[in-house]
Amino acid sequence: MTQPFSYTLLARDGAARRGRMQTAHGAVETPAFMPVGTAATVKAMRPEDVAATGAQIILANTYHLMLRPTAERVAELGGLHRFMNWPGPILTDSGGFQVLSLAKLRKLSESGVAFRSHLDGARFELSPERAIEIQHLLGADISMAFDECTPFPAEEAAAQSSMELSMRWAERSKAAYPARPGHALFGIVQGSVYPELRRRSAEALRAIGFDGYAVGGLAVGEGQATMFAVLDETVPALPEDRPRYLMGVGKPDDLVGAVRRGIDLFDCVLPTRSGRTAQAFTRRGTVNLRNARHAADKRPLDAACGCATCTGYSRAYLHHVVRAGEILASMLLTAHNLRYYADLMAGLRGAIEAGTLDDFAAGFAAEQAEGDIPPL
Amino acid sequence: MTQPFSYTLLARDGAARRGRMQTAHGAVETPAFMPVGTAATVKAMRPEDVAATGAQIILANTYHLMLRPTAERVAELGGLHRFMNWPGPILTDSGGFQVLSLAKLRKLSESGVAFRSHLDGARFELSPERAIEIQHLLGADISMAFDECTPFPAEEAAAQSSMELSMRWAERSKAAYPARPGHALFGIVQGSVYPELRRRSAEALRAIGFDGYAVGGLAVGEGQATMFAVLDETVPALPEDRPRYLMGVGKPDDLVGAVRRGIDLFDCVLPTRSGRTAQAFTRRGTVNLRNARHAADKRPLDAACGCATCTGYSRAYLHHVVRAGEILASMLLTAHNLRYYADLMAGLRGAIEAGTLDDFAAGFAAEQAEGDIPPL
């Protein structure tokens, strides 16, 4: 018997929550960061490598997978877990965000979005019903309601009509969603930077009733202070007994600040994309391995990190494989970055349990501010 | 105490030899295939992934490493084993072959080769003395004498003078080589397709005295039948108590044929390069995963293979990641190809021990000839 989907609140520290989310494919300790596996692969990582970083859940993108290899093909092949050989929980987005950022010749209407593929120009349509169907075909543990990610900046009137469209789509998403044990449907709060719109969106979603609540339309250029201000207004309007997911976020200090504001789940391409462009996250800030100052540096990337990259290789070697354009550079740096994110989330979970989150956040910020130690 | 370098002949089947080579960084069961780690990485593989395929020794390229990061830098960083995190045996080539195939504005003289880097046009020189010094700085378990890989085709007179130059360079390589326990210097037989030149080259090298003997200047366009004919003439001229290495070879059937002719060691970029271009080696021949016929194929790449790629993924998934241009495609296919090569070598070793090499070779050829089974 598959256990029902659940969220258990285990501890609190201020607004921050330490919880556990149970899905059909296993439990997720929260707050958690979800590596992004856009096209049914977390880039440059085998699934076992992803799990080894400490990640317990990954995100996959409806837009990319509906274009190639198609949701129907994935379903024929036994679903996304089997297809990509990832046995753990998977969250899929609804495709709306990528349609607006990647597809060509988009046409938005009340029914949904018609667009052309960025790969070959082929015509597609996405609607709440189709987005839910695709996520069902993929076999996602957590499906997302279909929404419009309101562009930033947006006038209040435009933000309102966009949010209201998303709320009508949320209702249609819920109606279309085939509930199954261990599986969940999350609604997405919109409303741009307008507190009243955010609160009305949250209320509308609660009235529909979802298994979890996401905050969308952030990390789109508004800046961290504005994002945090929106969270301060929005998170208290969400139910306490459901997980809260801040979509597309973010940098390490975004995660710390958002966890302190009560967020439980995150996803972002930053650690994986950075891993393919020689950017590494460390306890003392970001490091660019392409920089010549690393060429003779015998030290590990992050002396406090226990990952295989930091225990096995010098900065000089990482610099060498970056300069030589070797695939291994992407593999080693992505693995390190995901481990850094997983360790950060584990640190936040431990601090919430211990009631020491303020100290943890202060220590984190101080260490980041010190910056990288130059080579001898 | 480091054990001395040694080669122990364990069993024979016809001309084929089952042996064990002991180096400062461990033993190598022969016949063995050496994956190529050109720039101090076997492309798309972590060192532990390489070891997991069954490979016990890798090859690294003097030419690439002398340009970047330089041999002196590798030495400062503790040598190549530590630099690239590969604890096992390493063989380095002498750089001569790559200078002739990659470098610009080459100028060959009795003393050596002056050339410009293909990376940035910087001037470099390689001589027997410098090639040996570089390999020493890298910390190679097995160093190769500096030679000229005679181009193919070559008139007999040109092949003779090229071979004689290589023999003078072999003598200088030996004189420059700092012997150390567990480390070896191999000479390289040249002489193009001329049996008499090959025999004279082998005699010249034996007179100098090397820890192992390589056959160079093959797999350069002469075709398999000619290559085998050259081996038939050359291998009997090599000493029985030293390992024999056929450089830059080859396809699976090249390996089988060369092992039957008494070769112990091989290297080739084929399994790794093919892994990055969607080409896979299987017990039933090569398979191109880019081909649309794999798009819905639930079967593993090679049902008889125990590698993580074949046990974890369908051909449909491999096709998907190839088409999507994902790094994972290179990782999974390279891992499979190296495992295929390692399994083939293990099969050859077992057959020699059992005295059933003819049957093994016939079974191998029959299975390869059957070709891939089409999807249902």
- The stretches of 5 or more residues of chain A where confidence is low (pLDDT under 50) are none
Oligomeric state of the chains in view: homodimer
Q: Quick one: how many beta strands of chain A?
A: 16
Query: Helix tally of chain A?
Result: 15
**DSSP strand (E) fraction of chain A?**
15-25%
**Largest sheet descriptor of chain A:** 8 strands, parallel
The outline of chain A comes out as: globular
**Rounded radius of gyration of chain A (Å):** 20 Å
Largest interface: A-B, 39 and 39 residues
First and last CA, distance of chain A = 59 Å
Strand order of the largest sheet of chain A: 4-14-13-12-11-10-6-5
Helix content of chain A: 40-55%
From the helix content, strand content and strand pairing of chain A, which structural class follows? alpha/beta
The whole-number mean of residue pLDDT values of chain A reads 97
3D structure, described in words:
Two copies of one chain form a homodimer. Helices cover 42% and strands 19% of the residues of chain A. Chain A is α/β, with parallel strands linked by helices and 376 residues long. The model of chain A has no long low-confidence stretch (mean pLDDT 97). In chain A, strand 8 and strand 9 form a beta hairpin. The longest helix of chain A is centred in the last third of the chain and has 28 residues, at 327-354. In chain A, helix 6 crosses helix 7 (156-176). The first copy, chain A, is globular. Chain A has an eight-stranded parallel sheet with strand order 4-14-13-12-11-10-6-5. In chain A, strands 1-2-3 form a three-stranded antiparallel sheet. Chain A has helices spanning 47-52, 62-67, 71-76, 80-84, 96-102, 128-138, 156-176, 195-208, 224-234, 252-260, 270-275, 308-312, 315-323, 327-354, 357-370, and strands at 6-13, 16-23, 26-30, 32-34, 58-60, 90-92, 104-108, 113-116, 123-126, 142-144, 184-189, 212-215, 244-246, 265-267, 279-282, 285-288. Chain A has 15 helices and 16 strands. The A-B interface holds A 39-41, 43-48, 68-69, 73, 76-78, 83-85, 276, 295-296, 298, 308, 312-314, 316-317, 319-321, 323-324, 326-328, 330-332 and B 39-41, 43-48, 68-69, 73, 76-78, 83-85, 276, 295-296, 298, 308, 312-314, 316-317, 319-321, 323-324, 326-328, 330-332.
